[in-house]
Amino acid sequence: RLREHVRSRIVTAAGAIPADRARRLTFALVGGGYTGTELAAELADWTADLAGGAGLAASEVRVVLVEARDRLLPGFPAGLAHAALGGLRRRGVEVRLEQPVAAVRADALLLASGERIPTETVVWSGGVRAPHLLTDLGLPTASLGRVPVDDYLSVPGSPTVSAIGDCALVRDRQRGRDLPMTAHFAVQQGEHVARVIRAELRGARPPVYRPRWVGEAISLGRDDAIAYVGPVPVRGAQALAIRSYVQQRYLYGLGGLSLVRHLWDRRREPEPPGK
């Protein structure tokens, strides 16, 4: 739906009056985490191509990324987050840091600073909350509606109940911080709970959960990326290779080689002019 919406905004902007044209060609994203940062870079690349196909100048398209905190990518090392900020700005993305959203209108995004961004497109990627089902079940909740868990990923006071992934507030005691709500930690936690259950069935002592910070990689458009592998920061071509490997491995797990080939072929197809 987003792809078709963006395409239609650009196609219809060509014959619009200046005010409508500017509004249709402005794409706002809220949230500078993984999703918002990647999507902003991809939109900057793709909308520039679409604009050219529709007879518009790429400079007419605005991609605006709004983040309430003072930096992007809170789960990444500060140096890589700064590199991501520079990479977005080089692509023409307008980044607004420390700018909470006040309201979303049909024709504009309003910021707490008083700035009004005329747009017909607002993409919300400002983070997620745990499902309300947790409170409905009477479980204790804390930050973002998540259930605090112990070293075994069990709910305190309910040792037969485990919480993982986006449902769980997991503290990394070694680093002194809560784990981010990302897929690779969720997978680790699911595997760990299985080990805990197996140990309990055997009458053995269950293992303590120790998160493995394997690393993360995100793309910053078609020719740039950032990543970290353990404590090592990676940028540019090497990060792109890591990002591609992670993505293809994930797709292979979902649908095998046929899915990887199908999506790879789709990415290589040229965008039809004006579509």
What does this structure look like?
With 275 residues, the chain is of the alpha/beta class. It has two domains: 126 residues, FAD/NAD(P)-binding domain (3-Layer(bba) Sandwich), CATH 3.50.50; 69 residues, no CATH class. Helices cover 39% and strands 21% of the residues. It contains seven helices and 16 strands. Strand 15 and strand 16 form a beta hairpin. Helix 1 packs antiparallel against helix 2. It is globular and about 75 Å long. The chain starts with a helix and ends in a 7-residue tail after the last helix. The model has no long low-confidence stretch (mean pLDDT 91).
Short description:
This protein has helices at 2-13, 18-24, 34-53, 78-90, 133-136, 183-201, 236-268; strands at residues 26-30, 62-66, 94-96, 101-104, 108-111, 116-118, 121-124, 147-148, 154-155, 158-162, 168-169, 171-172, 177-178, 215-219, 225-229, 232-235.
Give me some keywords for this one.
alpha/beta, 3-stranded antiparallel β-sheet, FAD/NAD(P)-binding domain, 2 domains, 275 residues, 4-stranded parallel β-sheet, 16 strands, globular, single chain
Radius of gyration: 22 Å
Order of helices and strands: HHEHEHEEEEEHEEEEEEHEEEH
User: Any idea how many domains?
Assistant: 2
Query: Into which percent range does the helicity of residues fall?
Result: 25-40%
Which strands sit side by side, in order, in the main sheet? 3-2-1-7
Q: State the fourth-level CATH superfamily of the largest domain.
A: FAD/NAD(P)-binding domain
The profile of the biggest β sheet is:
4 strands, parallel
Low-confidence stretches: none
Q: Tell me the distance between the termini.
A: 14 Å
Arithmetic mean of pLDDT: 91
- CATH domain class of the largest domain: Alpha Beta
DSSP strand count: 16
CATH-defined architecture of the largest domain: 3-Layer(bba) Sandwich
CATH fold call of the largest domain: FAD/NAD(P)-binding domain
Strand content: 15-25%
* Secondary-structure-derived class: alpha/beta
**Morphology call:** globular
The count of helical stretches stands at: 7
